[in-house]
Amino acid sequence: xxxxxxxxxxxxSVAGAIVSxxxxxxxxxxxxxxAAGGIAVGLGWKTSSMAVGGxxxxxxxxxxxxxxxxxxxxxxxxxWLFAYLVPAVGLARGPLLGAVAGLAAAPILHQVETGVLFDxxxxxxxxxxxxxxxxxxxxxxxxxxxxxxxxxxxxxxxxAVDLLQETERARSAxxxxxxxxxxxxxxxxxxxxxxxxxxxxxxxxxxxxxxxxTGASAADAxxxxxxxxxxxxxxxxxxxxVLLKPGKLDPEEWETIQRHAAWGEELLEGGEHFSLARRIxxxxxxxxxxxxxxxxxRAAQIPFEARLVRxxxxxxxxxxxRPYKPAWTEDEVIEELRRLRGVHFDPELTDLFLQLRGA
Length: 359
Fold this sequence. Notes:
Elements: H1 2-19, H2 23-44, H3 50-71, H4 81-93, H5 95-114, H6 125-191, H7 198-213, H8 218-228, H9 240-243, H10 251-258, H11 260-267, H12 275-283, H13 304-319, H14 330-339, H15 347-356
Helix pairs in contact: 1-2, 2-3, 2-4, 3-4, 3-5, 4-5, 4-6, 5-6, 7-8, 7-13, 8-12, 11-12, 12-13, 13-14
């Protein structure tokens, strides 16, 4: 900005000098042009060399002094140009060159006002020098402090961003580990049925779709889906002779099968991460009319997630071949869901699921 300003004044001064019919105005215009050019170069020239910067600073001060000498009898207040130039040098070039600009400007200003560079008998002389030096050094020092503070804040921000990214990577790894543990545990339970484990994947995906359709957030739907994979984890405690029996179960065997819901809840005890999976495991066989197991609760007493998994579990189980039954067709499964709507299944969730299946 300072460089652009200096160039603008330079151009205006040259133009004024050219069009003027007064020799004195021409001299003043040329002096202003020189001062403006010096300021433009001294403050706007990008350099990292202290020596070059110092020479540019001295040139800007000297040319400003030239302009002040030429115009002093026309407008004495021009000497206050130094009050703007010296702090500007400090801001542009730093506190050291700002102090140099103030030190160089002091005798020039004294010369313009009194006709001598320095008067040892003038008690105000040293104070004038100190004031100009301070005018140059203080803004540069404050600017340097601000710059250092900004750099420190930038470093802190960079570290914070890195820490956030590292934290997110750790959380992602933790989520992946939890999901893997869920999958392995669910796969172990599913293998007891003699299946390939596809059922738990289907239940997870169907549960996510139905949860999203109810208005659940993507994160909540995902939690429901992964927790749904553990709905039959209690089967790990069911003997093979009962679980894989091809024929009809007797009352004692059926009672053993029913206990897998409570066993699943017990197996998932001990961690907040499994709280949702525990609810699903215990109550995913409860019926809307209260005829299910293990607690014979009904309607809205059954947790929402368990009601949801109840539908998708039955849907996929009927469509899958098991040791004790063949796979049903899609139409047969849809008809069964309609028949048990409001009996075994939440009617609203059933209607929504049927809509998702295009039925």
